[in-house]
Amino acid sequence: MSKRFKGKTCVYCGLESGSTTGDHVFAREFLPIEHRANLPQVPACERCNADKAKLEHYLLTLLPFGGNHPASTDLLTANVPRRLAKNVKLHRQLAEGRGPVLVKERGILQHSMALPFEGRKLSELFVLITRGMVAHAFGAQIPQDYSVNAGILTERGEEITRPLLAMNAKERAVATLADGLIEYEGAQAFDNPARTIWRYRLYGGVLFADPNSKGHATKNIWAISAPDPLPGLFAD
């Protein structure tokens, strides 16, 4: 491990001098082996590293099923059966919960197949990813008392949030990893380095449906860091 990641402030929990490792903000296993070099890394403590790994394991198992990128099929074939073999409970949940749904894309309702999905785990992981990206891209530590919300926006929330990303910003971070397997865009406010907004897209656009809406679905994962909560934007 590089010494530059040891004994620093953990970007996830804020523990001063507590980092024991350099954590990949986007887990290396999200990408094919040939695309794992030079990924964003940040200092992390042992506990946060372990907690984040559990969330990553869950999403690494599910996301390839919904991938729309050529590499998704390879990741699904190579990695998912092995992961499901180690998690019989999750394997059973996916088999029993799979079913037809109506989703709305570009204003049109259409039939699709869906897998049961714990949105809370997606939100928790992308809260951590956003803390990591703010540190990596902007050199700022999000205070622990700040609100960091992440996940799937409601249809109205996306209408409100999308224009904010296009507004003038102090700094921007835009990147495409592994030929579009992971895409992200972030913007930092002029007046506050820890006030940021992010849009992520995974595996060529995995489609996430909001179970509490009338078919609303999106290929975007959003995150906002701010001093105060922003209620009503994110799906439950």
Task: Please provide a brief summary of the model.
This protein is an alpha+beta fold. It has helices at residues 46-62, 70-85, 88-97, 119-138, 155-165; strands at 21-24, 41-44, 99-105, 108-114, 147-151, 171-177, 182-188, 196-202, 208-209, 217-218, 221-226.
Mean pLDDT: 87
Count of discrete structural domains:
1
User: What is the approximate shape?
Assistant: globular
Q: Tally of extended strands?
A: 11
Largest sheet descriptor: 5 strands, antiparallel
Strands ordered across the widest β-sheet: 5-11-8-7-6
Flag low-confidence runs: none
Q: How much beta, percentage-wise?
A: 15-25%
Q: Spell out the helices and strands N to C.
A: EEHHHEEHEHEEEEEE
**Helix-strand makeup class:** alpha+beta
Describe, in plain words, how this protein is organized in 3D.
The chain has 236 residues and is of the alpha+beta class. The protein has one domain (3-226). 31% of the residues lie in helices and 25% in strands. The strands form 4 sheets. It has a 5-stranded antiparallel sheet with strand order 5-11-8-7-6, covered by helices on one side. A hairpin with a 7-residue loop joins strand 9 and strand 10. The protein is globular. It starts with 20 loop residues before the first strand and ends in a 10-residue tail after the last strand.
